[in-house]
Amino acid sequence: MSSERPEEQEATVLVRGETMHDPQPKSSTKDKDSARKEVSEAKVAMQTRLPVLDDDTAVGIQKEEIVVVRDGKADLAFSGTLLASAAAPSAAEGHWQEYRIYSTTGGKHVFSRATRSIFAAEQDTHEAEVFDPSPSSMPTQLLRSARDLARAHPMTWMDAAVAFFGYDPLAKTLYRKLSGQFEEHIS
Q1: What pLDDT does residue 24 have?
Q2: d(CA 30, CA 50)
Q3: What DSSP designation does 25 have?
Q4: DSSP-derived secondary structure for 158-187
Q5: Inter-residue contact 128 to 68 (CB < 8 Å)
Q6: 170, 161 in Cβ contact below 8 A?
Q7: Could you tell me which residues are beta bridge partners of residue 96?
Q8: Residue-wise over 176-186: b if at least 16 C-beta within 10 A, else e?
Q9: What's the pLDDT at 33?
Q10: DSSP collapsed to 3 states, 27-77
Q11: Other Cβ atoms closer than 10 A to 83
């Protein structure tokens, strides 16, 4: 005799020589709804315009107050110009990245990367770095000097952009918008 109670035993039926088991219970619509992620209408609107970004019309225009958001650090506020921006043509699986390069009136460059999601529960992430061609602190000058010796030429803002963005397809799109300055010329 089995130790299971009768209501817990599985029923097995033989039909035309095949063993049949009770079908698995179907999941309820409540389970399906909880598995779906809620989307943000504002972010969906942004996603439908890709690869166009809201500030594409501001490229090349001097602005008195630009604020670049950064996670875990103070936001960057400066006067300057958006040199170029790029975004993927579509949002694979509801996520996409936006790249931007700014030039400040003080001669610095700001590199910005935002990773966006159409899902309301997921926060967008923001990273940014500043490239200062003439660092003011002694440790930074020493590090820059050691790097310059190893590279055989001083680091430019374009070198810093490549260090920040790399050479993924979106970065290459961004570089193309800045002309052929980022191409490697060989003879």
Answers
A1: 52
A2: 33
A3: P
A4: HHHHHHHHTTSHHHHHHHHHT-GGGSPP--
A5: yes
A6: no
A7: 116
A8: ebeeeebeeee
A9: 43
A10: CCHHHHHHHCCCECHHHHHHHHCCCCCCCHHHECCEEEEEEECCCCCCCEE
A11: 18
**Encoded tokens for 163:** 């260090």
For 60, phi then psi, to 5°, come to: 85, 0
Rounded to an integer, the average pLDDT of 106-116 is 96
Positive or negative torsion for Cα 71, 127, 61, 156: positive
SS3 81: strand
Instruction: Write out the H or E segment, with its range, that includes residue 149.
Output: helix 138-151
pTM of the model as a whole: 0.71
* 186 vs 60, more confident: 60
**CB neighbours of residue 110 within 10 Å:** 22
Task: Name, in order, each residue with C-beta under 8 angstroms of 115's C-beta and a sequence gap of 6 or more.
Answer: 95, 96, 97, 124, 125
Chain centroid to Cα 46, Å, comes to 14
Q: What is the mean pLDDT of the chain?
A: 81
- Residue-wise pLDDT for 138-187, tens only, equals 565 566 566 555 655 678 899 999 999 999 999 999 999 997 667 776 77
Among 88, 87, 92, 90, CA closest to 59:
87
Number of Cβ within 10 Å of residue 69's Cβ equals 14
